[in-house]
Amino acid sequence: MDYSVTIDKFEGPLDLLLHLIKQNDIDIFDINIAEITEQYLKYIMAMKNLNLDVSSEYLVMASELTLIKSRELLPNEEILEEDETKENLIDRLTQYQKYKEISATFKNLETLRQQSFSKLPSLLEEFRSEDVQLSDDITLNDLLKALEKFNEKKALEKPLNTVVTRREYSVYERGREIIKTLKMKKKVKFEDLFDIYSKDYIVVTFLSILDLAKKGELCIKQEHYLDTIMVFAKGVEA
Questions:
Q1: Contact assessment for residue 62 and residue 31, using Cβ atoms and an 8 Å cutoff
Q2: Using an 8 Å Cβ cutoff, are 103 and 75 in contact?
Q3: How many CB atoms lie within 10 A of CB 211?
Q4: I need a surface site. Which of 40, 120, 215, 233 has the fewest CB within 10 A?
Q5: In terms of domains, do 129 and 210 share one?
Q6: Predicted model pTM
């Protein structure tokens, strides 16, 4: 059998053994020690003939394989000890195979992660405005918590099978829709303005509410802590 030797191809003797087992389409639990030992030793000899340095761990494995092979020739009373040695080798091979498989999974995840780009943290103070009309007992955090509760509520109502269609939304257009609703109803619950449950729609609606509050075109009020947050049209008394 001819061998094409690449010194960097294998990460150690167990890696080489797995390669030989796979190459010969052998089940790890049904290894022919004599055959696999012969192929392993040929590979080691090929490395030496190419004047490649063979690390000690490869030589240790060669000795172990030779020992197991020699014990197969011993009388029956020695078989138990031989089987234990072979069983130990098979256990190490199966554990190493699992390591190789999970390493490949992590490598794929690393490749996927390298295709993602994250934004560095930034200060949002430039977007802060004292002109946003909120009652004294309500803060932006209260609005965010209300939005979070709304998302949780809608998630429970979400059907098992949905057909998703995309539509482009703008803060201006959504703002006009909110103003139109408020002119008709005068006041609405904060969560009732999110009448479509999609990520884009929710984000645009939330930004529109804040933008309109900043411009003074609507008011946001909460009578008491944990009460329902209400949104009022401009000029409507709370």
A1: no
A2: no
A3: 17
A4: 120
A5: yes
A6: 0.37
